[in-house]
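Hi V.,

You were right to ask for the full record rather than a summary. Here it is.
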Amino acid sequence: MKRQKYHYGDHPSQWGELFLPEAPAARNGKPPSPRGIVVVIHGGYWRSQYGAELGEPLAKDLAAHGIVAWNLEYRRAGNGGGWPRTFEDVLAGIDKLREVAGEHGLDLNRVVALGHSAGGHLAVWAAGRDRLAELGAADADRQVARNLNGEAVHLTGVVSQSGLLNLAQAEWADLSNGAVSNLLGGSAERYPKRHKYADPMSAVPLSIPVYAVHGLDDDTVPVSQSEAYATAARAAGAPVQVVKVPGDHFSLIDPKAPSYRKCRDLVQELLQL
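Predicted structure:
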């Protein structure tokens, strides 16, 4: 396995690390190029004390199974992130793949996101970048809106691992002691347009497949987060499935756990491997 770090900005948290699997046996004198890329987006309720080290074991496991992985770091609330910078970084970090793929001869026709918890929110949100552009943006949101255009790398599928997919519900439930308001700089009452823009529910329906995987014993992010999103998406005709698996919130990012292996299987399905 080969790994290489790239920066997409000047901030210490604006980087991604590419994990390349061992090259398969050559055919006709040339090894085949890996098919597709998985963007690994870590969670941690968007707070700075949690970083890309959470995604590294997943990226290593994916590479060990022949899958190219892009472990994405981004600014979080507490280290220069929050609104709008966390959102800008996720889009810019995904778009950095255009340069990275060109350097390594990788396939951008299949780019799947694997996001855990807050990373699941950011993955599904990023998948809706075209739909979000249709919403328009308040004055404070125009920086993010600019990132919805240009040479974008579009996701072709998402596996959300206990993702926070309904921000309005998460704020109402005060999950993780006000994590949503902390991310967005204030309440939905104070910043209604900002909250709407940041909520994956606003971009329903997406045209790509989304698997909302959730642990049956998750007491960190309630399964209602996945269920509410899937209900709204399916009602709008979107291909979203809730997949309930054994284990708690963190078993989904434990490469030894059956619940994580189910996530890996779904990633492989989306990459058509």
